[in-house]
Amino acid sequence: VFGLSSVAQVVLGRGDFGQHLSINLGFGIGVTLGIHAAGGISGAHLNAAITLTHCLLGNLPWRKLPAYLIGQFLGSFVAAATVFGLYYDALYDYTKGNFTVSGPNATASIFSTYPAPYVSLLGGFFTEFTATVMLLLGILIIHDEKNNEALKGTQALLTGILVLGIGLGMGMNTGYALNPSRDLPPRIFTAIAGWGMDVFTAGHHWWWIPVAAPVLGSLAGVIIHKLFIDLHNQPVLDSGNEKGQPVVQTS
């Protein structure tokens, strides 16, 4: 809701009610609050790609996958419907009732991501893949108890800032979906709500890129963290015992 409504305000307000930064802040705030809301209940699985990665690595039982995916997809679909209702009058004023995916008054990008006109499918795939790699690396570093983990209670805020940083640096090409459950359900909603099947054919059938690329990027991020950080971490206690010296904690 925070993310999509911030996009709606920028698009429908024709730049008078926010810019690129406000969209990134909206998504960052939404992620932060989502983690606070669901962290203690389910671990705050807000991203289908990350949930699937946890199942593949054995960190989450496969029997729980359907419940997580249903929750993510339903929440995202309802969010799109909520923003549609919130800005229904503004949408009609902006488009004169003609909801389009492309053109000067296109509004489908309020709800789902679409590539910039200059971006190829390969370039878009690489953008989404790389951005998701950075997302996973950031999340793993923030929660890495063997390393310099974030202070307790700050993880949600730092994850929101991480999303903000990805949007600021890697949002121009594709709108940084990073998450199948953030992109696909609103796309389905727009197909139902008046934009039609163009939402699936636009951008050379772009719709599958925000589904597949984040899954592969999530797996790659975990592997990179394991190979270049986790395998080389030695707890301070073990290091001190090996040398036969008392362990001294430093801040």
Compute the number of structural domains. 1
Written as H for each helix and E for each strand, in order along the chain, the element string is: HHHHHHHHHHH
CATH architecture: Up-down Bundle
Q: Identify the CATH homologous superfamily.
A: Glycerol uptake facilitator protein
Characterize the largest beta sheet: strand count, sense, and whether it forms a barrel: none
Number of strands: 0
**CATH topology tier name:** Glycerol uptake facilitator protein
Q: What is the overall shape?
A: globular
% residues in beta strands? under 5%
Description:
The protein is mainly alpha-helical and 251 residues long. The chain has one domain: Up-down Bundle (Glycerol uptake facilitator protein), CATH 1.20.1080.10. It is 65% helix and 0% strand. The protein contains eleven helices and no strands. α2 packs antiparallel against α7, α3 packs antiparallel against α4 and α6 packs antiparallel against α7. The protein is globular, with a radius of gyration of 20 Å. The two termini are 39 Å apart. The relative contact order is 0.15. The C terminus is likely disordered.
Give a short summary of the structure.
The chain has eleven helices and no strands. With 251 residues, the protein is an all-alpha fold.
Give the topology.
Blueprint: H1 2-12, H2 20-42, H3 48-56, H4 65-86, H5 88-95, H6 121-142, H7 155-170, H8 180-195, H9 198-205, H10 209-228, H11 236-243
Helix pairs in contact: 1-2, 2-7, 3-4, 3-10, 4-8, 6-7, 6-10, 8-10
Membrane topology: Multi-pass membrane protein
GO molecular function, one term: water channel activity
Organism: Tricholaema leucomelas
